[in-house]
Amino acid sequence: MRRISGMVLLALLCQPVYGWVSANLQAETPPQRVSQGGSDWVKREVGHELALLPWYSVFDIIKYRIDDSKVTLMGAVTRPALKNEAENAVKKIEGVEAVDNQIEVLPPSPSDDQIRRAEYRAIYSQPGLERYGVGSLQAIHIIVKGGQVTLEGVVAGQGDKDLANVEARRVPGVFSVTNNLQVEPSR
């Protein structure tokens, strides 16, 4: 009899938690069809799933666009498996009916790998820019293809954008630098 009363007590204690969890799940339930431009829920879910990809690094960039229930993936990655993992992660999101995977897989290149490492050191060792390297995914992405460097991401100010550009151009073996860094809007 004592065992049954303990189970009843456990069930009574868990009931309020279960109610809270189920209420939150209902609040986050996505619509059956995503409206033009994508719902906020689907946008958050796509961004969340892409950020959780285990091999997504500072040397990859994945962007996306949502049109109705179709997600278009764009960008460039260093590992072919990452392209497939991104598509598979987005496909499983409720409300997404189609995925157009336009992610480019960068060709393997020892010289590009050397430039990537040198760019990382040059940018993230600078006072003021080192803060963008904190966390699991760095804010400034360094894309290298055939000696051509593209900087992607978001920085706090124009000075940070300019400093990253100057440091990226100083790395030996770089043919060109395209600075696509975005500056956060002022608050």
Description of the molecule:
Helices cover 41% and strands 22% of the residues. The protein is an alpha/beta fold and 187 residues long. Helix 3 links the parallel strand 2 and strand 3. It is globular, with a radius of gyration of 22 Å. It starts with a helix and ends with a strand. 26% of the residues are buried.
Give a quick summary of the entry.
By secondary structure, the protein is of the alpha/beta class. 41% of the residues lie in helices and 22% in strands. The protein folds into two domains: 40-105, 2-Layer Sandwich (GMP Synthetase, Chain A, domain 3); 110-183, Fe-S cluster assembly (FSCA) (GMP Synthetase, Chain A, domain 3).
Secondary structure elements and pairings:
Elements (H helix, E strand, L loop, with lengths): L1 H26 L12 H12 L9 E7 L2 E8 L2 H12 L6 E4 L2 E2 L4 H15 L15 E6 L2 E8 L2 H12 L6 E4 L2 E2 L4
Parallel strand pairs: 2-3, 2-4, 6-7, 6-8
Antiparallel strand pairs: 1-2, 5-6
